[in-house]
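INTERNAL TRANSFER SHEET
From: sequence group
To: structure group
Subject: ERP44 protein

Please process the attached sequence and return the structure record in the designated field. Keep the field labels unchanged so the import script can parse them.
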Amino acid sequence: MRPAIFPLLPDPGCLLLLLVSWLFSPARSEITSLDSGNIDDILNNADVALVNFYADWCRFSQMLHPIFEEASNVIKEEYPDKNQVVFARVDCDQHSDIAQRYRISKYPTLKLFRNGMMMKREYRGQRSVTAIADYIRQQKSNPIREVQDLEEISSLDRSRRNIVGYFEQKDSDNYRAFERVANILHDDCVFLSAFGAISKAERFSGDNIIYKPPGENAPDMVYLGSLTNFDLVYAWTQDKCVPLVREITFENGEELTEEGLPFLILFHMKDDLESLEKFQQEVARQLIGEKGTINFLHADCDKFRHPLLHIQKTPADCPVIAIDSFRHMYVFPDFSDLSIPGKLKQFVLDLHSGKLHREFHHGPDPTDVAPGQPIQDLASSPPESSFQKLAPSEHRYTLLREKDEL
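Return from structure group:
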């Protein structure tokens, strides 16, 4: 009689370990790799896309990879449609043309796209699975608050910029264009909408969009273009939502600094709205042509005491106007000079020409010295930039280059 042969069974403990690993190990996320051949098609068809611009040699990029993948896993469980949310990446060494196209100046950079349009605010939050997932959930939330009674409009917070759309129905091309605009600009304005019978009193000439600017007595502005033309609606709304003179805060300082443009800043007390209004008027009157060469900003004197100390000022001296070139700070002679025609513009032109820099180091230019007066080389040391410290940290990014500023 032949002996019975029993197959060897695996150790029960090993089986249990394999089962637990299979149940609790998430599937590796498939991050979409972008190149010049697929980037436009993928981004244009994505409601929301978060793109990681990285370099393999960058240690910060290496640290982010597993976090980015796990955040993608979490979000794809909640938004399974592949076009709802896309997590993608660009190897900037392999695709330098794409890096240049989106002005990548540091690794890793996380940029948000909506239907192919890159948002001006990149992701700067914590680099954790929870924070990135929460950020995407926030981006997927409805940016438009639907009002149920027009009385809600009369009680709006008039310290904010409000855009209100009145539509006959939600399922319309007019509203879809409005919704696209709100998705892009919801960080800059509050968007509201009313439909049907609720909005009827405001639709005497058809669907319309109203801008309600800050200030209790500020007059409303009506959009007069085509409601179905996204480009026109977007351009009009952006003009209303993004002011010429923006407030700089500790929250947006890094973003503004990274734009690379010098700052023309009004330091004023928070409740001194009169000085702010004068500054805004003169910037619009004298410097509209300089938009794109310098950032026009205002700052709370109390919050930004440190930059004031750099130029030997205190909140008691406010309002104060200064330029921060990211190398030095230069002070406008006197706030009361603001009303002198062309004075503020010349201050900015003197920055661009290098005159402010030269005069700080060598005294007045010879052309500014009265005839017969001896020319003196008055070496001085202008205050160093204070806002440059708000630039992206080298402990968080690999910075690609230094910017030369006057």
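Handover comment: The longest strand covers residues 48-54. DSSP finds 14 helices and 17 strands in the chain.
Transfer complete.
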